[in-house]
Task: structure prediction
Amino acid sequence: MTSIDWLIAGALCLSAVIGVWRGLVRELFALLGWIAAIVAVLIAGTSIAGWLPADWNPGVRLLIGGLVIFVGVMIATSLLGRLLAGALKAAGLGPVDRLLGFGFGLLRGLLVVAVMIFVLGHTPVSGSAAWTGSVLLPYVMTVLGWFRDVVPDDAAPIWQV
Result:
């Protein structure tokens, strides 16, 4: 195995361990939290900025307003996730939640690795012995092929990995 293989395996294992540790419910609420927080900032960030002192720099007001909303939404979704995960654990479904969290973690890790490989494929690293001799890289390239199938044709030039 090459250094690329060890990085791929390490990223997959780390993501899977985090998935088991947190469980599916908390993982999903974390993902939902990121999405909801970004949407909330885009929708209401300027509203909060309007409540801050008018003599402050407008950029600082927008930044603080966005941060307040972002952090608030992240905390709220995290608490909801913990509450629901606790309810599942109390109902005896904790092991199922953790097992499904393992699967979610593997999929997330595979996505992260695929993005990393996509980016590295456009650098000189892609010509190295570690790259060409990798055992796991062809499997990740298969995943990239799945993404290529769903991306519009006008984005085709960026897929030359």
In short: The chain has five helices and no strands. Residues 3-51 form the longest helix (49 residues). The two ends are 21 Å apart (CA to CA). The mean pLDDT is 90.
